[in-house]
Amino acid sequence: MSACELGELRQTRVISWLRLIERKLNLKLEQKEFEKRVMEINKIYNEDCLETLNRMADNSVDCVITDPPYSGLVSKSKGTGRFANTDNHIEYDDMSERAFLLFVKPIFRELYRVMKLGSHLYCFTDWKQLRNMADSLELASFKIVNIVCWDKGHFGTGAGYRSQSEYLLVFSKGLPNTFNLRNVGNVIKCSRAKEAIHPHQKPTELLKILVENSTQKGDLIYDPFSGSGSTLLTAKAMERNFIGSELSKEYVEAINAKLCGGLFSNSFQTELSNEAGT
Questions:
Q1: Are residues 120 and 20 in the same domain?
Q2: Which of 71, 81, 148, 227 could join 168 via S-S bond, C-beta 3.0 to 4.6 A?
Q3: Do 137 and 186 fall into the same domain?
């Protein structure tokens, strides 16, 4: 074998060896990515929702039900989250359109990634941010299905046209899956949550309709802004799996107290049982 041929052989072996190393490194990276996105379900995470979403696998969520902080910016927290104030409650100062769009853009984009094709997304909003919320969801590639009006039965404080309703945007990833319930209109009348511990706590009567209409037993529901945890508690009571994200340590502790050992507070159990019988 000539020196030239020997050199070419050595070069070929070096290239093969480098390719083998590259494949092993890629496998390790893929394994790390897989491990990163294997996470515990039926749990609420005390962190920014983008941190939770970063660990969630593509096309893994069957339904999203959430109530973003659409009408006020909150100050930057000391922890891992981006927006939380000192008493862990949402502030109600006006959020500019630009601030709102910057806030929700990465979240909606990540929600689209983790949701299954055809799955439904429910997003609560008030009349002030209805247009911006809908536009932001469409920019994230979601398809609008309907707008539901939640009639709370009586108006709040203030003057002029006092607010008695809230809106629920219904979107889907691609063409929507068929809803499970019939005879459900896009105006739903039910009272505000009883014994609320959060300013935006939603009634289980309303959440039960959403969960039943868009999921089956064993499906996975995600709420990136869990608040009081009503969505998670309703999901568990109806035998759905869930994942939640919440910045407030106080709310997370309150939710875990209700979830601990699979037990709910007596008031929540009674409320859900009464609504199931109506």
A1: no
A2: 148
A3: yes
Which strand ranges, in their side-by-side order, compose the sheet holding 220-223? Answer: 43-45, 241-245, 220-223, 61-66, 115-125, 165-172, 143-151, 187-189
78 and 208 part of one domain: yes
- Indicate the SS3 state at residue 134: helix
Q: Kindly state the average pLDDT of the residues 59-67.
A: 96
pLDDT in tens, 133-181: 999 999 999 999 999 999 988 887 777 788 888 999 999 999 999 999 9
CATH of the domain at 251: 3.40.50.150
Indicate the residue type of 139.
Answer: L
> Taking Cα atoms as reference points, which of 95, 77, 94 lies closest to residue 86?
77
**Which residues contact residue 278 at a Cβ distance below 8 angstroms, ignoring those fewer than 6 apart?**
205
User: Residue 60: pLDDT above 70?
Assistant: yes
Q: Specify whether 12 is located in the same domain as 112.
A: no
**Structurally, how many domains does the chain consist of?**
2
Q: What is the pLDDT of residue 28?
A: 67
Can you give the pTM of this predicted structure? 0.74
